[in-house]
Amino acid sequence: MIRIKKGRINHKKHKKILKLTKGYYGSRSRCFKSAKQAVIKSGQYSYRDRKQKKRYFRKIWIININAEVRKYGITYNKFINKIKKLSIKINRKILSNIIIKNKNIFKNLIKLIKKN
């Protein structure tokens, strides 16, 4: 019987891992063992950071809205509360974009909230 060493298959696996670690520092991009560990760890980081990215953007939107609302003498908390009471369906991302691009629309929204 012929002995199968899986040389070609292993070489293909190694090349696949080393291709993923292109640009890594030192032996992490050259040696298979450390490269494999680096790929696993980078996968863990990317999984975690996909979740953190959502938190980070929401945090930025809230900071942006708070800064703009305080110019009109309202706190962020009261602003969001009034929007919910008036049943205006608008999320923080859109509010932040309105603040950046269309200040007039935001001023009208503030007037509507202060009136009620």
Overview of this protein structure:
With 116 residues, this protein is an all-alpha fold. Helices cover 74% and strands 0% of the residues. Helix 1 runs parallel beside helix 2 and helix 2 (32-70) crosses helix 4. The chain is rod-shaped and about 90 Å long. The mean pLDDT is 94.
**Mean pLDDT, nearest integer?**
94
Radius of gyration, taken over Cα atoms and rounded to an integer in Å:
26 Å
| End-to-end separation | 88 Å
- The proportion of residues in beta strands is under 5%
Any key phrases for this structure?
116 residues; mainly alpha; rod-shaped
Provide a compact summary of the structure.
The protein is an all-alpha fold. The protein is built from five helices and no strands.
SSE topology:
Elements: H1 7-20, H2 32-70, H3 76-85, H4 92-101, H5 103-115
